[in-house]
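Checklist before submission:
- one chain only
- standard amino acids only
- sequence pasted in full

Submission:
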Amino acid sequence: MKDGFIKVAAAAPRIRVADPAYNKQAIIEKIEEAEAERAVIVVFPELCITGYTCGDLFLMEPLLQQAEDALLEIAEETNGKNMLVFVGLPVRWKGRLYNTAAAVSNGSVLGLVPKMCIPNYNEFYEGRYFTPGMETAEEVVLEGTARIPMSGDYPAEEAFRDRGGGAAVQVPMGSRLLFSADSIPELKIGAEICEDVWTPQPPSISHALAGANIIVNLSASDEITGKDQYRKNLIEGQSARLICGYVYASAGEGESTQDVVYSGHNMIAENGIMQAEAERFTNQSVYGEIDIQRLEGQRRRMSTFSGKKEDYLEIPFHLKKEETTLTRFVDPSPFVPGKMEERKKRCEEILLIQSMGLKKRLEHTGCHHAVVGISGGLDSTLALLVTVRAFDSLGLERTGIHAVTMPGFGTTDRTYDNAVNLIKCLGTDFREVDIKEAVRVHFRDISHEESLHDVTYENGQARERTQILMDIANKVNGMVIGTGDMSELALGWATYNGDHMSMYGVNASVPKTLVRHLVQYYADTCQDAVLEKTLLDVLDTPVSPELLPPEDGKISQKTEDIVGPYELHDFFLYHMLRSGFRPAKIFRLAVYAFTQAPCAPSEPPMEKKYSKEVILKWLKVFVKRFFSQQFKRSCLPDGPKVGTVAVSPRGDLRMPSDASAALWLAEIETLEHSLDTR
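Returned file contents:
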């Protein structure tokens, strides 16, 4: 449970219909399995103590009595176990029968959550037996042969009533119950049952607004063709809408197949993403970790996550706080979809967003000319491809795109040739302006030695290129298209009033790891052999500003050798801005993602790339640069947002340019010390 990760389980025991004694033992075995896996929230299917398909047997006294006996014995088995367990059973109260989810922990029955929406259509006929549950909690007496202590705030002596030598336990029953862990105040759990989540206004909406960040669902959802995908979409969607973890346990083998079949479709979702899903028809238990820190962070930043908070009874339970061993997939490339088909779709969508953004700006200004500086690198290549799309969508001639290559002191033959080939393949206007002599004049004007390859030497070239582009734009009555990407902006790897200045920055919210895939996608779909070859060589070229002279004709200045690997920086950027994580958690996730995490199912295994020391080194660089370079982001030109993370000062990142990084750096120094003293 370190760093907000809560390990959960959804289990579907193989049961016998109308045999609570047998089912009790099957449930206990699954509880013991979950304990071995160190799950702290364990969810079983709807009515699993009796079986969902008992039919008119639900009206029989022996079955109901034995179900309550079995519940109390299951509760007793949880004594000393570090978990909260939800099991389903029918409960009698005041002449009515309720379909309930019983929460048990540390030997006690904590509460009963009744099913609110009772289906009585198609193959469902629960209305024949069950009454819709109440919202406000009532005191319910459970009778049983096992005398166990009472939980919660209710006096223990009042909880027991002697009935013919047996024992009775008094517990609250109602839909407005929340279960909260004493050692983790932010952890709050609400429950609903099967049909509840299929209705227009599920109880889980109220639960979430009252503070529940994990919703459990005890279900008995039968299988018909195509229902599994709808069910999966429903659970993913509910977890996204409520910004919660959602643990769904569904009845499986053992239920009656007289008219329908149950598959045990267990699922664990978090904020719209499926973390674990059982193979249907196998009664497979699934395990996963839900990150409640991330969920709480998302809720805090979403100002519309609010509403009427009904009165809820909050029931505490004890959890021993311990570190969770992660088993969930932590994506080393969070901006890039892992599956090929999803990646293709994402790339096409982003190219469309970028080009439509530029199209609107061109239409609004009545501009028929655009100026793009082409270096032969990734960013300028993408910017040109996007500009071509925008011109094509407007029906404008591509010759109105003025692609300018500006060789300088660091330009290599490889990048120059790629720039020229790219421009010619796309049919845009080609312009070449050699900047070396103009920069030398500038160096003389400011008394700077050309042999001194410092920041003045580098930035002088970048600003000269910006001047050329801006002046050409004035000359042709056009606009300069910005090429800088979000990763460079996050690190401040951009010349102030140079590289990041333009009239419209089409790449401003595209991270470097995604830029590569966008260019790759264009190469794969362009149907032009020469253009494809050029784009592939651009992809194979080291990332460089090419501001220092080449060595033996090859690029001498490799960006990632200076500021660090972009795949690490994009990982840090995503988890810092998207989730607000502290450095220690980002470091833990990065170590896991780049050394231990399982790969996405459709992708080849990832080689171990970075040691802990290397990851921490570049995390420190990222934090320092991110804070110190905010002033460059504060004056960004307009540009389209394409994903959930962006750094525009008018959109997602309203950050003072003089904010201190001391808190973040202090935590990193603590991490450095812990590595040094291992």
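Reviewer check: The CA atoms of residues 251 and 548 lie 66 Å apart.
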